[in-house]
Amino acid sequence: MNDKRFRVSSNKRTTAALALLGGFIGALFIENLVTDLDENLILCLTIAIVAGIVLAILCGIIVKEYYLRIYEDGFELVKGNNITKYPFSAFEGSNVTRNYMNGIYTGTTREIKIKDISGKTLKINANNLSKGAFAELVTYLNQTRYTESHDMEEAAGYFKEGYDFRIPNDSIIKANKNRLFVQCVATIVLLLVFIGMMIYYFGAHADSPLNLTIIIFSGGGAGMLLFMYVVPSLLLYNKVKNLPNYIYVDEYSLKIGNKTLSPENVQSILMVPASYEILTRDMIVITKNNEKYVFNFGKKDSKGELTYSEYDKLCGTVEIWCIINKVNYVKILG
Fold first, then answer.
1. CB 300 within 8 A of CB 277
2. Who's near 285: CB < 8 A, 6+ residues apart?
3. The pTM is what?
4. Closest CA to 124 of 113, 136, 137
5. DSSP annotation string for 277-324
6. Which residues pair with 328 in a beta bridge?
7. For residues 1 and 292, what is the distance between their CA atoms, to the nearest angstrom?
8. pLDDT tens digit string along 184-215?
9. Is the pLDDT of residue 99 over 80?
10. Could you say which of 14, 53, 56, 90 would form a disulfide bridge with 86 (CB–CB 3.0 to 4.6 Å)?
């Protein structure tokens, strides 16, 4: 495996942006106390901008970022010139928390936990990483995950016959496409009602409470459908279009569509758990040459039309295959 580097923090960028804004506002405040801003506006603005830029540059020099570098035998935590090397056994796990305020989603907090030499657990904020990059990092850190509780001989016998997963990808793709079409039509209808009522309301001076109510609900409904349903469905449809029609797993290989992968070539497999309803059902295969294959099995729905019905069995089979072949298997939680 080639060395991998992940920037898990964005302290430098965030602090520099705050320093730029704070320096600009602070300089203007001080200038307002000693001179007349209206008479010296250009000069005062110039000084304030320079003050903000200087503070931002200083923060960029002083504040250090957290990096994690992955090697064959362990990983390094880098903060500026301070570099600490750890074995993979020092990785204590990760936390993923979805945050809400009054029922409204406000973001996801990602955290890496490392046990240092003294036995204390160091928690590192990894919000700078995307969902995929965070899952990939956890995969590399999780090198010693393989549990001894499995009977390896019994697990290997699990694959003597091999397992076929026939995936009705055409019907799943069509179901996602149909749902997207219905949502688009509903959004367009509401949008047309909104535009028509706006023209009628202002053009014909028909400013009745009923007309105003129709305008509010049709416009709000169109916006809600667009951002809460149409956009996510469009993104999901674009993902699920590469869904393979066939997966075969035996002791020596993993075949996904027209790709055949051997355990010797696979570094990690990441999958969203079947019981996890928040995310779409992604499967990510990372090879030891740092090639990445991404497959999407839709998203769990009440009717089971938008996803592969045996995805839970597929997850369990792939996890056992990873254990007996010493391939990293990681559950993507966000």
1. yes
2. 254, 256, 261, 266, 268, 269, 292, 293, 294, 295
3. 0.57
4. 113
5. -SS--EEEEEETTS-EEEEE-B---SSS-SB-TTHHHHHHHHHHHHHH
6. 268
7. 13
8. 999 999 999 999 888 887 777 767 778 888 88
9. no
10. 90
